[in-house]
Amino acid sequence: MFIHSTNKELTRLLRDIDKQIFEVLLVSYLLFYLLDQILNNIISDYFNLNIILIIVIISGAVMSFPAFSSEKEENKQKQVGLKDYLFIIGLGIVAAGVIYYKIDLVFWLRLAISIISGMIIILLSILLLYENNEKNP
Which residues of 38-55 are buried (b: 16+ CB within 10 A; e: fewer)? Predict the structure, then answer.
């Protein structure tokens, strides 16, 4: 009896640690990558970003193991609100700005490509938001 509860606690602790590692390193990788793209390899000249990416992939794969899945997290339901839509629109605008900045074409062509790309990102994100909301009624 005691061993079983200790195993559950250990599994929960490892799941929480892995979740924290995944979240922190994913956000760090995305920020470093964005800065690296905008500021012309200022980070990749001194640090290999692939190291962080490999750790993010491994921790994400470990989180997907059935032993690490939490029944409570699957049953949690989150209402989609205005904050979610504003966040998605903001990220789509930022992505369109980065695409506009990185493309080296004629003004009108790069403007059109960046606007279309931003709209695709926004629409796909909203579609995923609705799909996740429908799975958890």
Answer: eeeeebeeeeeeeebeeb
> From CA 67, how far away is CA 64, in angstroms rounded?
8
Rounded to an integer, what distance in angstroms lies between the CA atom of residue 87 and that of residue 99? 18
Handedness of CA 53, 57, 58, 62 (dihedral sign): positive
DSSP class of residue 67 equals G
Residue ranges of domains in the chain: 1-71, 77-137
Give the residue, 45 or 4, on which the prediction is more confident: 45
Alpha-carbon Rg for the chain in angstroms? 20
Give me the amino acid identity at 131: E
Q: What is the pLDDT of residues 83-129, one digit of tens each?
A: 989 999 999 999 999 889 888 889 999 999 999 999 999 999 989 88
For the entire predicted model, the pTM comes to 0.62
